[in-house]
Amino acid sequence: MGLSFKPQTDDMREAPSLILIKKFLESGAHITAYDPVAIDEARRILGNKIDYAEDPYSALKNADCLVLVTEWPEFKFPDFTIIRKMLKEPVVFDGRNIFDNAELRRKGFKYFCIGIDTMIK
């Protein structure tokens, strides 16, 4: 979720998503991505190397996990009940620390974020 360098733009120059996508593809992953603005720019840069979703929830259909890369405002308060149903396993990697660790653990998610030990009970 999120491809642009930052919210409110389609700028993908030096976007962290490009680094992650490259590494995931090298590992054999299949990627379906969603960004509210940068989809056309991503298609120009990445072509058919990845799939593109029309909305954030359809990007998660049968996915192994959710990886949040850009902190778009519309990503801050998702419906985790829908997300849990869409994912094969309830696993979230939050690269921007926008989700609530305790809430996700209560809902049965494995939650990983940057700079915070989410495994403390």
Note the main attributes of this structure.
single chain; 121 residues; alpha/beta; Rossmann fold; three-stranded parallel β-sheet; two-stranded parallel ribbon; 5 strands; globular
Strand line-up of the largest beta sheet: 3-4-5
What's the number of helices? Answer: 4
Mean pLDDT: 94
List unreliable stretches of 5+ residues: none
The number of distinct structural domains comes to 1
CATH topology: the name is Rossmann fold
Q: Gap between N and C termini, in Å? A: 27 Å
CATH superfamily: NAD(P)-binding Rossmann-like Domain
Q: State the order of secondary-structure elements, H for helix, E for strand.
A: HEHEEHEHE
CATH architecture: 3-Layer(aba) Sandwich
Helix/strand structural class:
alpha/beta
Give the overall shape. globular
Q: What is the total tally of β strands?
A: 5
Verbal overview:
- It is a single chain.
- This protein is of the alpha/beta class.
- It has a single domain, classed as NAD(P)-binding Rossmann-like Domain (Rossmann fold), CATH 3.40.50.
- 26% of the residues lie in helices and 12% in strands.
- It is built from four helices and five strands; from the N terminus they run H-E-H-E-E-H-E-H-E.
- The chain has helices spanning 16-26, 39-46, 80-86, 101-106, and strands at residues 32-33, 51-52, 66-68, 91-94, 110-113.
- The strands form two sheets. The protein has a three-stranded parallel beta sheet.
- The longest helix has 11 residues, at 16-26.
- It is globular, with a radius of gyration of 14 Å.
- The model has no long low-confidence stretch (mean pLDDT 94).
